[in-house]
Each structure stands twice: as C-alpha cells, then as structure tokens.
Amino acid sequence: MEIKHVKNELLFKTNSWTFIAILIGLIIFLPISEVFIQLFNPSESWPHLKKTVFSTYLINTIVLTIGTGLLSTLIGVFCAWVIACCEFPLKKFFEWALILPLAIPTYVSAYAYFDILELSNPILIWVRENINLEAMQSLNSFFVYFFTILVLSSVLYPYIYLLARASFLKQGNQLIEAGLSLGHNINEIFWKIALPMARPAVFAGLSLVIMETLNDYGAVKHFGIPTFTSGIFRTWLGMGDMSGALKLAAYLMLLILILLLIEKKARSRARYHENSGSNKPFKKIILSRKKSIVTIALCSIPFLFGFLIPVFRLSLWAFISQDVIRNISLLSLVKNSLFLSVAVSLLTVVLALLLVFSAKYFQSKLTSFTNRFAILGYSVPGAVIAMGILLLSAQINKIYVDIILTGSLLILIFAFITRFFAVAWQPIDSGMEKNCKNINDASRSLGIPAIFSLIKVNIPLIKNTLITASILVFIDSMKELPLTLILRPFNFNTLSTATFDLSSQAQIVESSIPALCIIMIVAIPLISLNLKGKNKLQ
Amino acid sequence: MMLSLKNISKKYDDTTILEDISFTCEKGDIVGLIGSSGSGKTTLLRIISGLETPDSGTIKLNNEMVNDKLLCKSPEKRDCSLVFQDFALFPNMTISDNIFFGKGSIKNNELIQELIKFCDLENLLDRYPHEISGGEQQRVALVRALSINPSLLLLDEPLSHLDNDLKQNIRNELIKIFEKVKTTTLFVSHDIEDAMTMANKVVVLKDGLVEQKGSPSDIYSRPLNRYVAKLFGKTNIVAASHAPKSYHRFFDEFLNEDAVSIRPHQIELVTSKSLKYKTAIDGKIISKKFYGSFQEIIVKSEELSLAIHLEPERKIKIGDKIKFCMDL
Amino acid sequence: MIKNLKKNHFLLASLLVLIASAPISAQINLYTHRHYDSDKILFEKFTKETGIKINVIKGSADQLIQRMISEGKNSPADILLTVDAGRLHRAKEAGVLQSINSKTINKNVPSEMRDPDGFWYGLTVRARVIVYAKDRINSNELSTYEDLATAKWKGKIAIRSSGNIYNQSLMASLIEANGSRRALRWAIGVRKNMARAPRGNDRDQVRAVAAGLADIAVVNTYYLGILANSKEKKDRDVFNKVSVFFPNQNNRGTHINISGAGIAKYSKNKSDAIKFIEFLTSPEAQETFGKVNYEYPLFIENNKSDLLKSWGTFKADKQNLSILGIRNSEAVKLFDRADWK
What we know:
Chain A is mainly α and 538 residues long. Chain A has 26 helices and two strands. Chains A and C meet through helix 3, helix 7, helix 8, helix 12 and helix 13 of A and helix 2, strand 2, helix 4, helix 9 and helix 16 of C.
C-alpha cells in the first residue's frame, strides 16, 4: 500500500467507524501476531528438529496435501459435472447426498475408519511370506498414505464439489452449444471449455481442502504420519519447547502462504473468463442406461465412503454403548456445543459485517488492509491460535493482575472468532461488493448517516448472505476441536471434546455417540445451505 | 461561482486518469462533461461528489473549499448530489421510501411533492424499483437526488441505458426538469447529442485532459483540434490551403499543417449557372448512401476525399463528375 | 474499582464479572488428563463423603500445564492429574506445583512412585509389557526390553509411534539404565526390527499380532484390559490370541508408569486438595481403580482385579519415576535421531 494513501486517509478520512473497525481487526489478529513474535525467540531444540525430523514433516505434509488435493479434486469435479450437466436416475438424491460428508470432521472419519488399515493385513502377510519383509514394509507405508488420503479426501471433497457445481451451473449452455456446433463432443467440451472456466472455483475449493488437510491433527496422529501439525504438538507438548513448535508453525504458515499465492494467481488469471456466462440454465445431457448405471456407481463411492459407512459404523457402536449417554451427560454436551457455535457464528458475522461495511462504505484502504490481517486466522491451525491466546493472556495477566483470561467462555469465543473470521468475512465481502457498492455511494451522496445506511439498506440487501455466513461459521465451530480442547473453561465439554476425550482413551466405540450428534447437528444446516444455493441459481 | 476545479489530477497505480483539470460552473449552468469511455469523466464526477480523493488540486463548491492539500470533505457533507448511471435505487425500499431517504428530505417536502407531480410519479410511490420502467427509475433517481435540495446536481451518463426512441423523450423531460428547478447541473455523457441539446456549456475530456470548453455551438463551429471536431459530428478535416477563405483554423498534427473542419452540409455543389462556378473544384462521385432525410456522397478530387450531404431528392449517380465549393 | 475498569476496559471488566463466580467454599478445581468411569465414581463418592464439590477440566496434560503457566497466580487449579510421571515432573519444573507433606499420603504411596521433594504423588500403576502371539512364539524366547533390539526379532515387532508418552517413558528408563548411547542403539535396533512403520495406538499393535502381521508387541497393560472387556467380540477375540510377558524380571524389573497428581502452586483450597489425594490413594479407592479401569494399585501386590491377576505377579522397576520426566526431552530427541516415527 502506498504511503501517500495512508497519509491521505489519516488526514482526511479517519472517523469513528474506521477507527473502531481497524481496532477490532487488529484485536482479532492479536493472537496470530503473538505467534509471529515468538519466531524471533531462540528455540533450544530447533537445530535438532532441523537436523532430524524437519524434512520428514515437510515431505509427509506435501505428500498428504498433494494426494488429498488430487483425489478430492478428482471426486469433486466429477460429481459436480455430472450433477450440474447430466440427467440420470437418482440425481436429485445425489445432489444433496454428496454434500453430507462435509458434516463429518476429519478426526471422526479417522475414528470411524480406525481399523481400515487392517484390510491390508492379508496382502501384507502374503507379501511377507512370498516376497520379503522389505517389500511388505514399503507396501505397508504405501497403504498408510493411501488410506489416510482416502479417509481425508472422502470427507473433504465436498468443498470442491459445491464450488465447482455452482460454477458449472453458472456457465450456462450458450458456450456449450457453441462448442457442440463447432463439432466437439461433450467430453472435449468438458476438458476444453467447462473445466477451464470452472478453474477459479475448483482452485478456491482446493485451497479449502488443503487448509483442512494441513489443519488435521486427529487423523494423521491416528494413522501415524508425522506432519507439521503433529510435529507442532510433539515439539510443544513432547519436548516442552514452545518456540520450536512455533517455528514449525511458521514454516507451516509459509507453506500455506505459498499455496494461497499460487491459488490467487490461478484465480486472477482466469478472472475475465467468468463474465462470459449467460444465465440460461444448462440444458442437461440425458445419459443412456449404461452410462447412468456407471455414473450412479461412481457417485455412490464418495457418498458411501464419506458418509454412509462411517455413520453406519458409528450408529452400530452407539447402539452397543447406549449406557454411555448417561455417563457423558449428552444433553449438556449438545447444549454447550450449540451455545458455543451459535454465539460464535452470530458474533463473527456481526463483526465481519462491521469490518466489511466500514472498509467498503468509507472506501478505507486502511481498513481493508487490517481486514486482510484479521482473516489470516483461517489458515492457521487451531492449536497454533490457542498457543497465541495462551501467550497473550499470560502477558495480559502481567498487566491486569486480577483478571484471568484463559478458562473463560469469552476467551474461547474470541479464539473461535480469530479462527473463523474469514469464513464469515469472505461471503459478506463479496456479497456487499456485488449488491451494495453503488447503493452505498448513493446514500453517501444523499448525506445519510452510515448507521442508517447499514441498517436500512445494507443488511436487508445481503440478508441471505448473512444467513449463509452464519451457517458456515456454525458448521465449522461445531466441528472445531483443538481450540476448545486447549481453552475450555471448567466443567465445559462439547460434543467434539467428548468425542476426542473418549477416543483418545481408546474408547472409540463409546465416542460414537457424541460423534454422531455432531454429524446430525451439522448435516441439517448443510442441507439447508444446499437448498439455498440452488434457489439463488434458479 | 458554483463550482470551481483547479488543477485536479488523479492516478491509479501508474495510469494517469485525470491530469490538471480546471474549469468552473456558474450558478444555474448546465454543464456537459463529454468524453469517450476511459476519458476519466466518471472519475471526475466521483471526485467532485467526494467519493474519490484527487491526488492534487483544489475544488470549491458553492464558495466553500471541499478539496485541497489538507482537506477532503466526505461526500455526506458536500452540498451536491449524484445520480448514478444505474440509478442505484434501494431495491428493498418503495419509491417513496427511496425519495424520502435523503438526509433532511422531509424539510423539502413541498419541493419534493411538486417534483413528484411534475415527473408523473404519484402512482408509483408504493411500488418497488424493479416494478417500474427504466425511464421511471431515471426520474425517481433524479427526484431522490433533488430531494436534499443540493446546490449542485451531478448526473452520471443519464441517458446511456435507454434506446433511441426513449432517449429523445427522456432528454426532453430532463430539460424540462432542469428548467424548473434551476439547480446548477453537471452531467457526464459520451453522447454529443446530449451535450448539444441539454448543456449550455460543454467540457470535452480526452485521456484525462481537457481538450476544449465552451458553449456547444461555439465548439461545433470552432473546434480546437481534429478530435473535438470529429466528436461533434461528421466532418471533413482539410488542409487550410484548400479553403483559403475559412478563418477558423487549427494546427493538425496528422496533416502537420493548419487545417479547417468542414461539415458535410457546408459543402455546396455548384452548377454552371452559379456565380461560384469559376472558383469551384472538380470532383467525381465514388460512393453514395441514402439516409432518408439526406444522402451522403463521397467525392474524390485530386488528393482530397470529402463527404458531402445533399437533399434526398437530388438525382445523382456514382461516377458523375461534379463541381463543388467549400466556402464557409 | 470495577466501575473504573468498566469505563476504560469494557471487555476486560465483563470478563472479570464472569470469572468472579469461580471460587466458593468447599470445592476443588481439578485439571485432569484422565477420562475414566472409575474417576467419575470416585469423585462422586468423595463429594458424598466430604461435601466437597469437584470441578473438572479435562485436557491433555501438556495443554493443562501450559494453561496453568499462562494463568499464573490467578490459576483456579487446585490439582493437576496426569496419566504419566513425566508430565508431572515437567509441571514441577514449570513451577506450577507445590510441595506437600502428608503422613497419610506418604504411607499410601511407595517412595519410588512419588516426587522426592513431595511435588507429586502416584495414584495408579500401569506396566509396559510384551504381548506375543500364543501360537507362534514361546515365552522362553522373550527376556528383556534390550533383547528386542537383537536381530532375531527382525520384522516381528509391532510398537506404536515415538510421539506416545509411554514409549518416551520407556526410552527414558532405558537411558537411565544403560546410558544414552546404548539407548540410541536400542532404538535403532527396534526400529529396524519393526514389522511395519509405527501407527495407531497400543490396541492396534495387539491387533497386528493377532492378525499375524507381527509376532510380538510392546503395550500398556491398561489397553489390554480395554481389549479384554471390549463390547465388540472382535476385540475380545484379538485379546484371546495373545499372552502377556513381563520383561526384565531377572534384572531391574518391568518398566512401569503411574497416573499421578500434584497440588497446584497457587491452589486456594490446599487442605481440601490434600484430602482428595489422601482419598484417592486410600486402599478402597485403589481397589476401584483396579476393578473399573484395569490399573494396578500403588502396591502392585495388593491387586484385586481378576483380569490383572490372571497375568501373574511381576517385579517392577524400582527406579524413582521422576527420572521419566528428567529424561523425557532427551528420549524424544533420541527417537528422532533413530528415525523412529
């Protein structure tokens, strides 16, 4: 940002709105900045980490990210294309069923498939007996990566599916018809027209998948793959070296930054492709009987793996461990989870609205600049944010001796806001950009106070976006684990912590009940979100 | 003076949008800001209204400084009102809510009621913006902008959305409204007809620079360069030596000598009976197009190629040898 | 004062109000890593007997320690409960625990299972044992932990990742017994003998043995108890295919670890907290741990659980368990150097 602009703004444009917005943005960024500051503190074990495990973490993280990214893209794009552009029996069902895996947190999916690796045992034993031990061991490592990638992809692909489907639907049929009239068949059109045009959407979905993969702790820990995230926990908690862990976290964030830059580049290059679509709905390709059967079979695989099998297994376990319900006081778990998620989603949306509005209404470059910092939290693993909060509260404790920040519900909610601010910010920002830009200029030109404009014009215009944003934050909050785990107050347990507590004590069967509750509570808004998205497009 | 701009400049990154713009509007003026797309005219409008900040220069509005080195009044505090190209009506409010949303509009109730009646909006007050036609939306936007009784009314491409038929009507309506409220008005357009019919003063912008300012008829007959001449309608740019009698000349970079602008209707075909026959130039018709109210022929004469407009009933054909003169 | 704060620091003040409701008399605040039914039963019993209410925050021990550090003097914690000695030692080093001296507790807890300075005390005992496939391995072939690094076990051992605290503690005890160079060589040897790269928890190692993927596994007795009493028949079948072996019986004894507790440095309910630890170490509470949670009592010979009895008696390593904490960080680094994932 040019210094001149900042000067201009400071001189001319600072009003109470921008001041408050900048302040809130910086407060949200505070825990993350704590992590960055720690980078400069010396770490005792850093030379050791660099010498021994760093390359393992790096390689494993990259292999997992690429594998999960590729498999998710494959599944997500295929499903999106057939659902958006083809007509076949059961399509209506798959349309929403394919989203459901998003209701399952990665750690729950890993628990549900805790024994999936056993499937490979007979093969491994056969290889050991008939070839040799080394062959079996390398095959085993392959299986570990393969199944981990499978488990992660099967619940993460819906991010790509949702965004790619919307993009395909938006493209309209004019271009497709143009392609057909130029003598291309539908396959060629997919590769040469539809997919390139959907590329920004696919990349956006892919970046979400990658972020979730990098964030995952439960699944990689269970399957024994040391990644950056598990390395952070190991260094922090195993070696008791926080600054070493934070250095690892910094490298993880560097990796994320690189990926985000690549994604941004891919998106901006493709930007001017987007406007060309007409709004006419796509004329669906009616599949032949044979093709329909193949399509149904292919669509069933992600649904089975990502949703039906885990839910079925969890239900079976829940059935044989009903007595747990009493022990874990399920009702209070549900209540706590709902309370936390609703509070977080409302507050996050209100704050995001305030910040986006201040930046856009007053065209404040400074506010947009600080907003960029506030949305960083989504790419930072929950555990790292929790570390930042712990550091922060330790410092505040030094100043305000009488106040304890950790262990209060407020600080937990604050941590969630830092983590999920981007989830609300993103849709509100684009919603306001699309719907309110000129309108806000108009009301300024008419001399209307900003607060009026916000309440009477902006909020009614982006009501749907606000609802969508709060649902998205709600879903993420329901699934979030490490933040609550580290920062929860006394006697405060949620469904996700109960799931983790039970399964970490090797009581996976018993953990099925809270896990199922998460899935059910998240699935409902997910489906409603799908219906909303569809209405908007029609 | 109602509005006075001095040396306004604006850059985005490294692209210059506006450079050293200065002009003034007197009270009651209707000023047209003319330029093709990309000439910076909309940016200038937004700078005047306060929605953008200029990099340098000063703006005085109704004798009050609103932009200088250390000051940039926010749009809410400026005594002007902007009508947007796409009208920017609040889609969630009725027409009447829209009109009365402006700050302090209640104070001007009498004026607004009069305007509503004048613009024929009485029956639309309870409808929503998407339920009325483009022309009606235009009038609502205009009344809404006038509801705060601004000293200066700004309009961004007021007629660009409309098709030709409607344009004519709306233009007349606008002129009537301007006459009625007598507010100083500055509008932006790429259409020269708008400028000529509505404005009493025109500022021509090209690539962020002022090319010429003055009354429409003045600019039409005395353009300062090829661009302005062509902007104001079909014309022939001819080296001054071909029309020794015309006194309004400008230096033309393309021809690299002094030139004159001769409109197609200003060229006269002469017959042997005419007094001018002796001084007339020989030419040959090489093409002919019929436009209804006139016909256009292209005449070739030595190195010149000229467009000439003739009355429609005149009988001519391609290949005819004719004589013409370019006296102004 | 609150009013002033409210003026200037609205957020902080409202936090204060929220927190002000924390300490009321006759309750203790517990930070615990344990999530067992046995604990729940015992807490309820304690409350019934003494009227002292118990507030619980569960979490991993390390996170809880970090939290106590960041809370400083204001920490509401009275007791920290962990499932291994190493973390208790770390808490002591971090300065979040305080030393106590109770005759009852000292009598209830053997000296090697408590901090020499009185900062923490063991509550229950778990042994890290070797299980072997009944049909393929003869117990005569097994002897010590050290023996696992010899070439005869190539491709036969299932053991979980080095990130696990029980492996780290085992490693710490081996460093103490044999020195770090030999411990590193041991880790490399075991890594080379693994049937597969480490993954899953202790139960998964037993499953690998039952499935025939490996012949022996190093696991915690507690997990065997869970498998044996699982609600799934599949798990019980797994358990029935293996036998338990207590290594190092002819020298220092089998490696054990404890679940233990320490009193928080800034505890506001110290006397009640001491009462609570006295209660947990009392013989009757010890019996509950064994029966409900498959853990050995502090005096292993007093063990009353039928399942644990069926594995036979054993000699435990008498080394003071604080060594597990002292050597923990070194153990992790040696694992990294041995490329034990």
